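Let us begin with a simple case.
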Amino acid sequence: MIVAFSVTPLGVGEDVGEYVADAVRVVRESGLPNRTDAMFTSIEGESWEEVMDVVRRAVAAVEARAPRVSLVLKADIRPGVTDGLTSKVETVERHLAG
C-alpha cells in the first residue's frame, strides 16, 4: 500500500519547515520506500499497520513541538503490488514519451 500524507503544525507561525522536517525524518528513518515533495510525503509498505505506524510516529514528532497538528492522508490499498512509488510514475512517463 501507498499512503500520501501531509502533517501541518498549527499555531507556530508561517515558517513550518523545521516541524515538517521532524516528520520527514521519521519517515526516512523507517526504512520504507518514500518520497517527499512540496505538498505530501508518500510512503510504501506491505501492510496498513506497518505504514500507519510510521504516519502515527511522524505526526507525534510534530505534535511534540506544536500546540495543534493537521493531518491529510490518502491511501492506495492494493495487496500484492510492490514498488508502486516508482512504477506508477514510470507508467505515466512512458505514456508522455509515446
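The second case is a distinct protein. As before, the sequence precedes its C-alpha cells.
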Amino acid sequence: MINLTDRIESFAYLGKLLSIFPDDYSIAELSTIKEAAIQSSIENGWFTFENITIALNSLGRMLREDHLQKWLQPYSALAEKQSSQKTIGVVMAGNIPLVGFHDFLCVAMNGNKILVKLSSNDSWLFPAIAELLILHNNLWSDQFFFTTGRLEKFDAIIATGNNKTAKYFEYYFGKYPHIIRHNRNSAAIIYGNETSETLEKIARDIMLYFGMGCRSITKIYVPVNYNFTPLINALDIYREVANHHKYRNNYDYNRTVFLINQISFIDAGYLLLTENHALSSRIAVLHYAYYLQIEDVISEINAFSSDIQCVVSDIPLDIGSVQPGEAQRPSLWDYSDNVDTMKFLLELLI
C-alpha cells in the first residue's frame, strides 16, 4: 500500500498538471487528459471542452501540497490507528465534469482501494486521472478499479444521485456502511449595493456548468423593489450559452411553458428569472424571492437546510456562507452535505 507521504506527493503533482491544462501538450500526461476531455465532450453535449477545462483547473488549485497537508492534519490521530485496507465503492454522478472527485480523493488518501461505478455521462475523465497517478507512481495500480456495471465485493459505499436514485441506493446499499447523497442546490443573497465586479462573480456561480451543479445558484434572494438591471448586465457575459443547442432547447421550452401558463418572468434572452418560492429551478431558469429583512431569508434558508449545498453572500453569515465567485471552487475541507467523508472512511479502518 502506498504510504501517506507518497499519496500527498502524487496528488500535489496531479494538481500541478491540472492547473496548467491545456496549455502545454508537450507534457505527455496532459495529452492523456486532453484525449479524455475531447472524448467526454463528444459523448456528452453538456461537457464542453471549456467547462471540462474549468473543472480541471479548479482541481489543480485545490490540490496544492500545502492545502493537502492542512486538510489532512486534523485526522492524524485517527490515521495512526489505521489497521487495515478496505475496498470502497463510489457511485459517481455525471451532472458536471468530475463531480465526484472529492470522494475519489478521500478514499485514495485513506489508502483504500477504490471501486468506481462511472456515470455514463462522465466515463472518460476519472480513468484518465487514475492513469496520470499511476504513471507518476505505479503503486497506485492496485488501488483503482472502474466499472459501468453493478458494484460487487466492497466494504462500504459512497453514492451520489438524484432524489429518486437516492431511495434506490438506500434500499440496495443500506446494509453497508454508507454515505448516500441526493439532490441539492445553492442560493445567493443579494443586498442591492453590490459592485459590478461582485455581480459578475455571482453570475459565474449561477451560469457555470449551465447551472447544473449542486453548488450552482438556482435561487436568489433580493430586497423588495430590487432593480434587476445591474444583475442582468453582469450575467450578459454568459450570453453565448444561448448558442448551445441543449441549453437553448431548455430555454425555449421553459419560456413557452411560462407564456402558456401566464407566469410572469424576466427574459434575459438566455436566462429566465421568475419569482418562485422553490429552491430548485429548471435549466435556464433562475428563481428569485423578495425579502424585507435579512432575518426572514435566514429563516427560510434554515428551513431548506437539508436541500442546500451552499449559500453565497458578500456578507459573512452565522449559518455559513461563501463569497461570490467561490461557489464552484470548494476547498478540500468543504464536504458535500456537510458530511465528513474522511472521518467516515478512517473510522471504518479502526
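The chain is about 40% helix and 15% strand. The mean pLDDT is 93.
Keep these points in mind for the review questions at the end of the chapter.
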